[in-house]
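Quick one: structure for this chain?
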Amino acid sequence: MSDLSDSLTRSTLQNASAFCGSSLTTSSFLNQSGSAINTQLEPLIGQANVRSASASEAAVTLNPDDGLITADPIGALQATPVRLSDSISSSNPTKYYGFSLNNASNFNLALTGLAADANVQLLSANGTVLNASEQPNLADEAINQTLDAGTYYVRVFQLSGETPYDLNLSATPTSPSQSPSNLLPTEFDLETLGNAALNLQSAVGSTNTTNVYRFHLSTDSSLSLELLGLSADADVRLIRDANNNGIVDPDEEIDRSQHRNTANEAIGVPFLSAGTYFAQVYQYSGNSNYTFRLSATPSYRPVPIAALSTISASATSVDGAGNSLAAARDIGVLGKQQTFNDFVGNDDPFDYYHFKLNATSTVYLNLSGLSTDADLQLISNQATSIQLSDATGTAPESITRTLLAGDYYVRVYRYSGDTSYTLSLSGTPQKLASGYSSSFGYGEVDAAAAVARALGQSPFPAVTDLGGTQWDLDQINAPEAWAKGYTGQGITVAVVDSGVDYSHPDLDANLWTNTSEIAGNGVDDDTNGYVDDVRGWDFVDSDNTPLDADSHGTHVAGTIAAENNGTGITGVAYGARIMPVRVLDETGSGTNVDIAAGIRYAANNGARVINLSLGGGGYSESIASAVQYAYQKGAVVVLAAGNEGASDPEFPANLATQWGIAVGAVDSNQQVTSFSNDSGSSSTLKYVVAPGKDIYSTIPNQSYAYYDGTSMAAPHVAGVAALILSANPNLSATQVINILTETANKAVTA
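Got it. Here's what it folds into:
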């Protein structure tokens, strides 16, 4: 994993970094920036199939009979839409239309009314493809892009069959610096939301995959969004129009709800600043009517902690609890239960409490005695939401959470009406379990002991060491498990990372193949939302070629499952299959959206183990939700602890108090490395260590290199998890993780 302190930011999303710290040519630790964290659309409507042109399609071959020189002229495009009705067929498969822009503009195109599959491209004056929309089958096509003044062309072309179509074009003058959007056009403008809830009925399906709703908040508000009455799987996401330019930017996503099948979808956001937003309802599978319910209540966005010193407590405090973070009631160090009685209502909508934890503790919060609807929120010292309880009506609210030592806030706030309340708080310090170290957790992973435990057998006898560059396999006793016939056979391990060089001669025979997909036919054969994903998926470029442009993912993959072919190296579970899932770009950076999407993809496509050698963007609800989703589907999620030399793991490894297992790094002397983030004082955290310094493994272009980092330690544990499952595939994720911690070797020094 790249050093967490060097994580990058892309647009408004936090980003995670690959936890690798080495150069390609040396084995020394280098704080090299890696990739990022904060979610997938399943599929990412409007981006998975609407994309910028690749280099291979940068130029088109023009037919004099239907090319640019004979394009139908439209003239200067303006905000008033132009609608053209036409058709294409086998004898006339392509149509061109020319238009001009007098000013830099937001260009909008929609191709509708299709009876057969057709696609559309946007071309420059010299025939270069600027953008393309390639929705499958009869789905509408759309392109939204900011263009400079000049001349452009639209190309409509046949994929199959004869079809009429309607081509809708418009352009709104704007600044040329505004970001383009590849989402379908807004269909519903709800204008400014009031206090009354809106209930709207519509539908999504094969001919209308997406509905986008624009709305405006005139004041800071809390928002409730629901998608109800589904007869097929549909999802919803909330997007901020940060530049207030009417363009839906996929990087501005706030949250999404993507429950399975026909379950209701819901998004609740306690703090949204005044401004313009979009809600996107999109098809996952099938056709469904739905009810879209949206309501907003004036709210308060917490002031960043850094700015609190500028706020006068006496000016903001209106009651015993205080109505801002600055004026929060200080209840001191949280220990035994404390109870407070107070009130929230129209004239006093918010009450804040501040408490301190001197050690990692389990915190219990309860809000009761309500006569109208009020909610409860736990807030960090950085003024970010940690957890929200928003039960309906007068039902009690409660939050239970294990927290590290530090300062925290509790917010009680009115949802409707006036109500008195009773707030109870307590904190119970965590005690270290027997054999748990705050430096190395439960110890170093032991493949032989773990596989033997999975089979209910006595520990396996020792075998001859491999030595040399494979010392790390000897240290975790992998050859002892191999000698008993357990090599990871039948187990798929997803590498959610920078991609994998699947042509590497030490990996090519051990790559996962999606047998439900027919390669190259342009059809989503298995209906999982991804076309021709035979080798996995690239969420960075939204295509089916998850090749590694960085080297990090290939190095991780080699440690897990490099072939036992007598050359190069051998992976911990050399009989397993690697599923490449690319979520990090060539710089090792990626968005939370892509990372969460990659985790869900891996879980949905059969990965029993998911390796996450990334982190560094701070907490992300979308990542946490995806890890929980994968874990509940039975996948063992292995999380690199991070390379800051900190006393606790970074996100997402700290999720291992609930889901997955965190991994720190040791060297060849079984000593915790200086860069590895320690396990901390909470033994509820599932944490082990593995070799993570001077690790020799595969990199692109048929090469090998030594890397350092907890990124290199995590795949050792992922490989051992695959060995366990190959010995006993009926084990749950929880059982595998318990075996890993219970059999770990305690002969580690801090």
